[in-house]
Description:
single chain, 4-stranded antiparallel sheet
Amino acid sequence: MVVQTMILCFxxxxxxxxxxxxxxxxxxxxxxYVPKTIGDNIxxxxxxxxxxxxxxxxxxxxxxxxxxxxxxxxxDTINLT
Length: 81
């Protein structure tokens, strides 16, 4: 899932905590990096629904390794919280 905010694109993804779950692409300098976020660690899950609204990314539902999860994760792309 990729969401563009201003000059940055945020990518959420990962596999079994083996790679970072949030990556950011800066379109001005053509470079990827892993932002430092504040708050609880985001669980890894797949097949989720996402919405980008008012500079926040809402990630809902999906599956973790063994079961369906029914939760909402929110990333504030300005404050990285």
